[in-house]
TrEMBL record:
This is Peptidase M50 domain-containing protein. Residues 66-139, 149-208 form the Peptidase M50 domain. It is found in: Cell membrane. It comes from marine sediment metagenome. GO terms for molecular function: metal ion binding; metallopeptidase activity. It holds the Pfam family Peptidase_M50.
Length: 384
């Protein structure tokens, strides 16, 4: 489906693996759509078209077709991501979820040309897959193979073409909306203006889906519910993408250093567990504290109070915090010179309200979500 910079995906996800260094994640909501597609194919679509096949056969067909379908969705997203990476962009992950797939980038493309190529790569892939599956279907049915073989390819061919067409609707943040934006952007030489227009068209299309869905439901077709859900999602995505662009714009010259507070409480390496609890955890009232070493405060890790509690109290006076020190993950820290928007995005991903600020592995302080939000508010008031 789309290429996005924000995380609009609900609930939890787990990692399936990595392809070309891109993390592939499956959101739990994806199992709903996988189940629905498999069931619809196995119990409705295939039995209606090919009544001569047994239920056992259509169930296997449904399952295999569904796997190939989501494989096609993944191929679509991968092509977006590969083109993005080839053009110097960073792709955080690809997530499959209830409404398809999303490639999450950590930044906007730099030029309209890059955006155009990146956006068109997805629908282009779906289109080619549609043709290939269609040819396999025609080939296998013309040499007299069973519908159990060619049936899935007929459906895969049609659905991939439909996927290409749906995604080319010119409403941001659908792929077509990105293509549309890149053309407006090249014309106006103004990305903000282009995004505003493309997002409006996207919202217009979303409302159309919702209204269409309501009409369906009132005429007794429950499928309308699906249109309403997709419309609602697209509307949120269009609004979210534009708002995020405004945020990024207002923070474009602000780096973490400007907003950082040099108030990071840290424990020196070698601190005994007893002192860590009495002097640091109890006094600071925090559940996690960083550990530093040397005069320049090299960040060597962090300690969670829960891990300290796993060690018997009788050993707290002998053992030091290195016993329970764990490395600080990239999600918990940000570089001093990084853009404040990156810090904000990291925090919104992990629902954290602050990050550790580091410079060449030295701990410098904390950056807080509230401080970034306050600056955004002030800036938006000034620009009105
Ligand atoms: Zn796409």
């Amino acid at each position: 489906m789309g290429i996005n910079n924000i995380d609009m995906i609900p609930f939890g996800s787990f990692r399936l693996g990595k392809i070309y260094g891109i993390s592939i994640e499956i959101n739990y909501t994806w199992f709903i759509i996988f189940g629905l597609v498999t069931a619809a194919l196995a119990f409705a679509y295939f039995p209606t078209l090919y009544p001569q096949l047994s239920v056992g056969v259509t169930i296997v067909m449904g399952f295999i077709t569904s796997v190939l379908f989501f494989g096609s969705v993944l191929a679509h997203e991968l092509m977006h991501s590969i083109v993005a990476i080839k053009n110097g962009m960073e792709v955080k992950k690809i997530t499959l979820f209830i409404f398809g797939g999303v490639s999450q980038l950590s930044d906007e493309p730099e030029t309209p040309g890059i955006e155009f190529k990146m956006a068109i790569a997805g629908p282009g892939t779906s289109f080619v897959l549609g043709i290939v599956f269609g040819l396999i279907a025609i080939g296998s049915s013309s040499i007299g193979l069973s519908p159990a073989i060619f049936g899935p390819f007929v459906w895969l061919g049609i659905i991939n073409i439909l996927l290409a067409v749906f995604n080319m609707i010119p409403g941001f943040p659908l792929d077509g909306g990105r293509v549309f934006r890149s053309i407006l952007w090249a014309g106006f030489k103004d990305m903000k203006k282009a995004t505003k227009i493309a997002a409006r068209v996207g919202q217009g299309f979303a409302y159309l889906l919702i209204v269409g869905g309501l009409i369906f439901i009132f005429s007794g077709l429950l499928d309308g519910l699906w249109l309403i859900l997709i419309g609602w999602f697209l509307n949120n995505a269009a609004q979210g993408s534009y708002q995020q662009l405004l945020l990024r714009d207002s923070l474009k010259d602000v780096n973490v250093e400007k907003l950082m507070k040099a108030d990071a409480e840290a424990m020196p390496a070698g601190t005994k567990l007893k002192d860590a609890v009495d002097e640091y955890f109890l006094k600071s009232n925090k559940a996690v504290l960083p550990v530093v070493k040397g005069p320049k405060a090299d960040l060597i890790g962090e300690v969670r109070i829960n891990d300290v509690q796993l060690i018997p109290k009788s050993e707290w006076e002998q053992k030091d915090i290195e016993q329970v020190t764990k490395p600080v993950s990239d999600e918990e820290k940000v570089g001093l010179q990084e853009n404040a928007m990156n810090a904000l995005m990291k925090m919104s991903e992990t629902k954290a309200d602050k990050l550790l600020v580091v410079s060449e592995s030295h701990l410098k302080g904390n950056v807080y979500r509230d401080d970034i939000m306050r600056l955004i508010k002030i800036k938006s008031r000034l620009s009105r």
